[in-house]
Structures are given as structure tokens and as C-alpha cells.
Write a structure and sequence with these properties.
This protein is an alpha+beta fold. Helix content is 32%, strand content 21%.
């Protein structure tokens, strides 16, 4: 059979001459030719198929999708319009205020703190220029500084200069959502100069880095300064207990600085200015400023020179006696003004960080202690004022005296003494004092009530009126609450407590003719306008008659001027001195029981024309003598001599009044 090839039918048609096949599906009628698409339609792998292959995909109408997109855009635009109306119309003022707050920075202008001076105008506490070191935490973020550990680097550089631990500085430099933080307050100009030099070095490095294509950011670019003031005490430890100190926040932390903080501090002001990039920029509105009002200058009653003498004398004796502490009060008997109030050991208010926390107060008014025999002057005042005895009254003093459930004795064993009332005071006899005060009433209970009244009138058991922070009123129980032993120990100064200023005030009352004047420490204040306002006049109270006070002064002369007296070491050539020694059992504040002694001496001079009172007390002397006349008598003598010369008090002669101390039995 000859080989031949039949002609292939054309696409989309068939051979008209070909015989129909029974198995072939009839072809549809030919369609009009369609234009060929530029790219073949994607081939479907699933879905319905036609008899000759995949069915053609027909796209839906785009109109529903366009409507949906249009509706979404309309909602978005509507939200923008609503927000725009809220910002520009409804809440316009609120958003403007927020923008103003973000743009403007308000900085406090610290008021200049007033000076504290002595009575002659010599500065005891003053303020000098200083700087608060601040920072903008935002400039230390990674986004702004382009330095990942910028806070750590800056803190490591600043810590040695500011004397602030690195972790504390890092915490401040990482303050979230803040443009302002204080790194250290009241730094000296030298500190800021060190930081400024360091900033200059790193700024130059940043410029060099930028020239090389780097970010060119200084790690200290966000550190700034604000002018402030720093409290200084030109005399160091002198009068530190009185003055107190100023804390890190610029507020009084103790003493006069705390007591008169509002007057000294003044009123802070405020300055508000526009900022950009952490820097101040000029604006059309300018700068808003409320000036600060300076604080008032406070003039104390203290005399700097007398304060120095008192402080040196007590510090030397405390060291010599290896005592816990000591205090000296010097007071003008005529006015009640305190001329000196010294404590030992002291502290330097310029360097509080190194001070012993236990010694930061003013122990002269904050320590309560049992006075011992210096309180016998109150018992004698009561006896004389009530007419129970006179200086010449005979008092037979045995070696022991039984009262209540106790057996009382004097500080030394002795045969029976035949003393006058004056001699009881001169020889500081406990037994003689018990016998004398027993005459104040028909019963012991009545005598107790009378004595208690005089103790209160002399200022015991209540504040002195000074108003000093932390001052103790002492302890004086009501007479009905006195124990059996207290009924007989309180007359000679045990079983009650007071502070050093209260003790000094008792002797000033006697020296002032029996009139108590509340102690004062402030003479007045000079305001920002330069006008001086004197402090209110202190309260005066008559305690005993002038006659009783004069008699007491003469009796106190016997303590110092008579050879049998206990205060001979307090004598001052050229002056008549009135005084009294004290040696009391001391309550140890840590143990809560008696251990050691409180040694003291109190008196005034000249006794015939009193001008100055001096009180000295030393707590727990452990080396050498512990008798008040032996260790406080010399302190009194040094301080009183210096005060009399400083105040130019002329000598009046040193012959004592010469009241009898003893009597002969049978006289």
C-alpha cells in the first residue's frame, strides 16, 4: 500500500470530506474569530473543566471593590476632620497649653539665703556663689546621642568630680520622658570649671569625629549648670551647735538654720524661656521671670570672741578628763541674752558628711541630766523666801541621816558638823539641805509642795522660752508622784533633770535680783529692704524677792571665797565671785541606770554688781578628779575672766561678804 499523508484539518474546523466517526462528539458551530490575548491566561489546576479542557475564567465587576475602598477612605478622612476640629476648635486651648509647656522650660530661681551674724555683725553663716549641675536626659538617649551607652560614659566621667556614685548618675541620666534632672546641687565654681573643661575636650573630639564622617556627638553635650548658692561657715566648728547646718536641699537641718528657716530662706523665683535642643532660644514673647526675694539676715545675741573662749575651754577640759561631752553657757544677767553656748565635742557644718550623727545637735539644750548640788540654790531660795531660816541659822549635820527607807550621807565621811545655813551651802552638805528644806512645811508632803512650786518658778520642768529645735524641758514630777527617796534627794539635785540652759537661767535669776528673764538667742532680723526689726522683748517673772536674791548672792560668795568652800578654783582676782559646785550621780542613757558622774559649776560675777552668768557641765569624766569644783571650777574661771574683760566690766574687789560658815556648839 502506497504510503501517503492525509492533509491535517485546520485549527477550529474539520475536513468536510472526512467520514463522521461514531465515537466523535459533534463539534460546535464555528465562532467568529476572537482577537488573541497578548499573554496567555494562567492555567488552572482545578475547578470545573469543559469537554475540551479548562473552562475560561471570567473576572467580576470592580465596582463593589471600588465602593468599599472609597467608603474606607471616607472614614479615614472623616476621622482626620474630627481630630482636626478637636485640636483646632474644641480643645484648642488645652493643646496650645501642652505645646507651650513642651516648648518652654521653667526653672526655679533660688533665693539668696540670709546671713547669720553675731551681736557685732560678724558673719557666722553666709552664702557664696555655687552651681547646680543639671542634665537633659533626652540628649543621652540612643536616638539623640547616637551613643548606646551615653549615660554610662557620662556618669563615669562626672562621678569623680561630683563625688556622686556612678549608678546614681546613670539613673538620673536615664530619667524617662524628662528634659531636666539635677545631678548635684550647690557645687563650687571649681567643680563647674572642671566639668566645663571636660566638655570642651569632648566637644573638640566630636568635631573631629564629624569631619571624618562620624555622628560628631559629644557625650557631655547634655550637661549644663544653673547658678545657685552654697552655705558656708567661715569659723568652722565655732558655734556649730547653735547654728546647725543646711541640708542638700538647701533647707535648715538643725539649729538656728532650722528654727528660722523660713526667714532665712526667702522666697524662690522662677524664670521661663523657650528651648530647642536643650538650649535657650530667643522668642517674640521674650522671657518670663518672677524675681526671687532674698532671705532676712539674722543677728544673734552671741559674741563670737566669748563663744570662742567658751568652746576652747570646754573642749580642752573634756579631752583632759576623757569625758563623754561637756557644755558651757554664758548669759547676760541683766537681759537674759545668751553670749555663748558651747558644746564639746563639736562638728564642722561645712563638712556634714564626716560629722558624727550623734553630735550634730546642740547638747546644751537637748541633753537632760540630774544637776546635783548646783540645784541646792533653789532649795536655799525657798527656805529664805518662806522665812524658814536665815543664813545664820544653826544646822547640826550628822555623818548619816535616816529618812524614809534610805540612809543619806554627804560626799565625804565626817564627824558631826556644826554649820550655819550659809555653811550648809558652802560645804555642799546633802544632809544639811534635807534638814533645811524639811522646815518648809509642817509635814513632809507640805514641804514637798512648797519646794516644787519654787522649782517650777525657776524654770525647771518646762521649756526655757528659747524655742530651740529639740530642746528638752527636763523632768520634774508632780510632788504627789515623788517616791520616798525623791522627797529627800530632789532638794539636793537628784531625782529631777534639766538642761544646761535651764541651770544657767536659775543663777541669772538670782543675779538679776530675783527676776527671771526668758533666755534669748536672737536679737533681731534685717529684711531684704535693709530695715532691722528687733526681736520681741523676753518675758520677765519675779521668782523671789530682791532681798532673798541679795542674801543668796552673799551665800554663794562663801562657796568660792571661803577656804572651807568647795569652789575655790573659780576665784578671779579683782572680782567678787558667786558660785556653786555640783557632782551628781549620772544616769547612763544607754544602760538606763546610774553610772559615772555629772560634774558642774554655776555662778555669776561680779557678785555685788552681777553682769555675767557662766554655767559648765561635764558628763562622765573618767580621768582624774570628777568633783565639779575641781574640773568645772577652772573652766568657769577661764571663761568668766575672758567675758568680763571682753565686756569691759571693771573690777569691784575680791573680798567676799564674810557670812559665817560654822558655829560653836552651845552658842
Amino acid at each position: 500500500m502506497p504510503s501517503h499523508q492525509e492533509p491535517r484539518p485546520r485549527r477550529g474546523g474539520r475536513d468536510r470530506d472526512a467520514a463522521p466517526s461514531r465515537n466523535r462528539v459533534p463539534e460546535p458551530a464555528p465562532r467568529s474569530p476572537q482577537p488573541r490575548p497578548s499573554r496567555p491566561a494562567p492555567r488552572r489546576t482545578g475547578g470545573p473543566r469543559g469537554p475540551h479542557g479548562p473552562r475560561a475564567l471570567r473576572l467580576g465587576s470592580p465596582r463593589p471593590r471600588l465602593r468599599l475602598v472609597g467608603f474606607g477612605l471616607t472614614l479615614v478622612m472623616l476621622a482626620f476632620v474630627v481630630r482636626l476640629l478637636q485640636v483646632q476648635a474644641v480643645d484648642a486651648e488645652a493643646y496650645a497649653a501642652k505645646a507651650e509647656k513642651s516648648r518652654y522650660l521653667s526653672v526655679e530661681l533660688a533665693a539668696e539665703r540670709g546671713e547669720i551674724t553675731d551681736r557685732t555683725g560678724i558673719a557666722l553663716a553666709t552664702s557664696v556663689d555655687a552651681y547646680d549641675i543639671t542634665a537633659d536626659p533626652k540628649l543621652f538617649t540612643r536616638e539623640e546621642s547616637e551613643i548606646g551607652d551615653a549615660p554610662e560614659q557620662a556618669a563615669a566621667l562626672l562621678a569623680p568630680i561630683l563625688k556622686v556614685p556612678v549608678p546614681d548618675l546613670v539613673k538620673k541620666l536615664r530619667t524617662p520622658k524628662s528634659r531636666y534632672t539635677v545631678l548635684a546641687r550647690r557645687q563650687t565654681p571649681q567643680v563647674w570649671n572642671q566639668i566645663k573643661d571636660l566638655k570642651g575636650v569632648f566637644a573638640e573630639k566630636a568635631r573631629e569625629d564629624k569631619r571624618k564622617g562620624g555622628p560628631g556627638v559629644s557625650v557631655l553635650a547634655g550637661v549644663f549648670q544653673e547658678r545657685s548658692s552654697r552655705r558656708v561657715y567661715p569659723n568652722g566648728e565655732l558655734a556649730a551647735g547653735i547654728l546647725g547646718y543646711v541640708n542638700a536641699e538647701g533647707r535648715g537641718g538643725g539649729g538656728i538654720e532650722s528654727m528660722l528657716d523660713r526667714q532665712l530662706a526667702g522666697e524662690d523665683g522662677e524664670i521661663t524661656y523657650a528651648q530647642s535642643g536643650g538650649r535657650r532660644v530667643p522668642t517674640a514673647g521674650g522671657t518670663r521671670e518672677t524675681p526671687a526675694v532674698p532671705g532676712s539676715d539674722i543677728e544673734l545675741t552671741i559674741d563670737r570672741d566669748i563663744q570662742w573662749a567658751a568652746q576652747k575651754a570646754i573642749a580642752d577640759q573634756v579631752e583632759k578628763s576623757k569625758a563623754d561631752r561637756g557644755y558651757v553657757i554664758v548669759q547676760d544677767t541683766r537681759t537674759g541674752e545668751i553670749l555663748a553656748m558651747a558644746n564639746a565635742p563639736g562638728f564642722d557644718p561645712n563638712d556634714i558628711a564626716r560629722a558624727d550623727a550623734a553630735g550634730l545637735g546642740n547638747a546644751a539644750v537637748q541633753d537632760a541630766f540630774e544637776p546635783g548640788s548646783t540645784a541646792k540654790v533653789i532649795s536655799m531660795a525657798a527656805v529664805l523666801e518662806e522665812g524658814a531660816a536665815t543664813p545664820d541659822t544653826h544646822v547640826v549635820v550628822p555623818n548619816r541621816l535616816h529618812r524614809g527607807d534610805r540612809l543619806f550621807k554627804d560626799d565625804i565621811d565626817h564627824p558631826t558638823w556644826y554649820l550655819t545655813l550659809n555653811g550648809v551651802l558652802a560645804k555642799s552638805s546633802n544632809i544639811g539641805t534635807i534638814l533645811a528644806t524639811g522646815q518648809l512645811g509642817k509635814t513632809q508632803a507640805e514641804a514637798n509642795r512648797v519646794l516644787h512650786g519654787y522649782l517650777r518658778k525657776f524654770g525647771l520642768g518646762r521649756p526655757t522660752g528659747l524655742g530651740y529645735p529639740g530642746e528638752t524641758p527636763g523632768i520634774l514630777a508632780a510632788p504627789a508622784d515623788w517616791s520616798t527617796s525623791q522627797q529627800y534627794t530632789i532638794p539636793f539635785g537628784q531625782g529631777l533633770s534639766l538642761n544646761a540652759l535651764q541651770a544657767a537661767s536659775v543663777y541669772s535669776t538670782v543675779a538679776n535680783g530675783g527676776v527671771r528673764i526668758e533666755p534669748t538667742l536672737v536679737r533681731g532680723a534685717k529684711g531684704p529692704d535693709g530695715r532691722f526689726t528687733a526681736a520681741p522683748a523676753p518675758k520677765k517673772t519675779r521668782v523671789v524677792s530682791e532681798r532673798t536674791a541679795t542674801t543668796l548672792a552673799q551665800m554663794l560668795e562663801s562657796v568660792v571665797g571661803n577656804e572651807e568652800g568647795t569652789g575655790t578654783k573659780a576665784r578671779i582676782p579683782g572680782y567678787r565671785v558667786a558660785g556653786k559646785t555640783g557632782t551628781a550621780n549620772r544616769v547612763d542613757p544607754e544602760l538606763g541606770r546610774y553610772r559615772g558622774y555629772t560634774s558642774s559649776f554655776a555662778g555669776f560675777a561680779p557678785s555685788d554688781k552681777p553682769r555675767v552668768t557662766v554655767y559648765c557641765a561635764i558628763q562622765n569624766p573618767t580621768r582624774g578628779s570628777y568633783f565639779g569644783g575641781q574640773i568645772c571650777g577652772p573652766v568657769y574661771q577661764k571663761v568668766m575672766t575672758f567675758a568680763l574683760k571682753t565686756l569691759q566690766v571693771p573690777p569691784t574687789g575680791d573680798e567676799p561678804a564674810g557670812l559665817p560658815v560654822t558655829f560653836r556648839p552651845g552658842d
